[in-house]
Every structure is written in C-alpha cells, then in structure tokens.
Amino acid sequence: MKATLRYLAGIAGPSGFGSNSTAEQVTQEFSSFLPSNLTALITGATSGIGAETARVLAKRGVRVVIGARDLRKGKEVREKIQKESPHAEVILLEIDLSSFASVQRFCSEFLGLEIPLNILINNAGMYSQNLEFSEEKIEMTFATNYLGHFLLTKMLLEKMIDTAKKTGIEGRIINVSSVIHSWVKRSCFCFNDMLCGKNYNGTRAYAQSKLATILHVKEVDRQLKERNANVTINAVHPGIVKTGIIRAHKGLITDSLFFIASKLLKSISQGASTTCYVALSRQIEGESGKYYTDCNDSNCSDLANDESEATKLWNDTHALLHKRLRQETN
C-alpha cells in the first residue's frame, strides 16, 4: 500500500527521484560529469520509451546506436534527434530480434564498426493477443522479448568487457522488464512450453518473457562477477506507460476500465526515466543484478530471485541456441 501511495503521489525515493521524474530530469544533474565518447546501443528505439531513451542519451552527448526492425521509423527518430541535438551521433542498424540470423548479422555489422560499447539497453518488446511464430518456429513474444536479447547480449558481451577494460569506464547492460513478471507462477514457467506457445495466452506469454529477462540478469550478473568484469547488468520496470503495447492490451479490458487506468499511466518521458537513470547515474556505480522501479532499487518476485531457476533457464537457452545455430551453419 505504501508503495502504491508513493507511486500515485510521485514521492521521491532514496535516489531523489520517483514515478513523476522524467528522463531529462534524472540525467540533468550528472550530464556534465559523464565520460566523453560513451556509446549506447538501444533496441526498439523507433518508438515509445526506446525512442525517448535514445533522444535523451543523445542530448547528453552519448553516441547512440539504434537497433531497428523498421528502418524507415528508425530514420525518422534519427532525424528528430539530430534536429534537436545537431551534434548528436546516431547510427542506425537493422535488426529483427525474433530472428537469430538477423541478430547475428546485426552483431557482425556493429562489431565491424570498431567502436566501443559502454551501454547495452535491451528495450525492444512486443505483445500479441494471438499465437504467432518466428522463422525458427518459436513463439513470437518469447523469441523477441527474451531469446533475441539473450543472443544479442551473448554476442556483444566480450566487446563490452573489452571496452570497460581499455577505458576504465564501467559497462552497463539494462534489460527492460515489467512488474507483471510477478504474475507468473512456477508451475507456468516451463521452457519448452514457452517455446511452442502451449495453451497460449497473450498476457501470460508477455509476463513469462519479462520474468525471463530478469532471470537473465541474475545469471549474467553471477557470471560477470566470477570473471571480475567491470560490467554490470540490471533490470528495470519502466512503469505502465502510454505506448503501443498498452494499446494492444486494450482489447482485454472494457473501455471504461481502460479510461480509468489510463489516468494512472506514466508519460513516455516518465517511462524512460528509470532506463536512463540506470544507464548513466553515478549513484549506482558497481550495483548489479538488481531490479529498479521509478529510479530506485526495488523488489522483484521470489521466482525472479531464484538463482537455480536463473541458471537452469540460461543453460536451457544456451543449449537451444547452440543447437539451432549449429543447424543453420550445416
């Protein structure tokens, strides 16, 4: 109840920010202290909180690489950013996170640029009321929201570790999750069932994918600490934001209920604030394996904190990718 009241009132937490804080506000005070030549890669930055995240980071002098499925929309976002910030460097590369082949091509193109990688923001997400499959015959929501980002992170992790080592600047990975990860029960979190979309329900599939993104954070954090790498990884809940995903959910509830709920939704700028805070704030230097809400450290579900579940999911995912990618090369 206290957390709900704090959210509704916009009361700031220990970080000095709260639910009403915008992305520009949370980056304003430390923008002059940012290292020069930072590079951030953001998926799903052609609309919503992804586009706002790209705009604000570029405004703070960060070189932004936009991973876009729709290059036309990506070009529009780049033009808007450069109109506001003429000196901004914005690189646009094509990626379809539901496709392993596309993720591999994207990583090859990015690594071919031979630029550093300080920040990786796994932001792209989708929701579908209907059961759909990727080109690898994997349920589309799970493929896009989790598997694609898992492969992307895996392929770029050594680049991030190397960049951090050469520059002395802490690398940061941010997985954009959702509070609805807590809706998932252990009995409904079966890797093979999620792959094939068994007994498909759109909201449940979305929640499962967002739980998987947090478990991904937990296991990669453990591995990074084992290697003593100067790279952190954290999950964020942006809040319930007025974006396309919310509009897709609208058909599941009555118009009157949606009207009431919409009054409690965050603006896109407020929704991007936690991602931007975790990407740039000096206050959380060295913090890793955590879950942030409203720019403050928060609690995720017991299942999301289960280390054995995180390791199991990572092993299952790694085995799947190894098998599928090996088949593609044969």
Automatic annotation (TrEMBL):
InterPro entries: NAD(P)-bd_dom_sf, SDR_fam, TIC32. Gene3D superfamilies: NAD(P)-binding Rossmann-like Domain (3.40.50.720). Signal peptide: none annotated. Pfam families: adh_short (PF00106). CDD domains: retinol-DH_like_SDR_c_like. Belongs to the short-chain dehydrogenases/reductases (SDR) family. This is Short-chain dehydrogenase TIC 32, chloroplastic-like. The lineage of its organism: Eukaryota, Viridiplantae, Streptophyta, Embryophyta, Tracheophyta.
